[in-house]
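Hi, can you check this record?
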Amino acid sequence: LPIHQNYQDLEVEGMLDARRALSGAHGPVSGYEVSWEAKGVRFRGRLEGARLVGDLLIDGRSESVVLTRK
């Protein structure tokens, strides 16, 4: 799931699952707080070193996720 930062804005692209592309997902970065949303998917989290830790809300269901930098 590639995430690109452009100053205080994130762009997210990739596939969430076999049926849902996340092209066009974007959101703000405010200090260590990060959020983005697109097509019924919302992420709210926090930068912790090389990790992005937070909750992914998909169609009303919440799931905790940890994304790491490659």
Notes: Strands lie at 3-6, 9-12, 15-17, 20-21, 25-30, 33-38, 41-48, 51-58, 61-68. The mean pLDDT is 80.
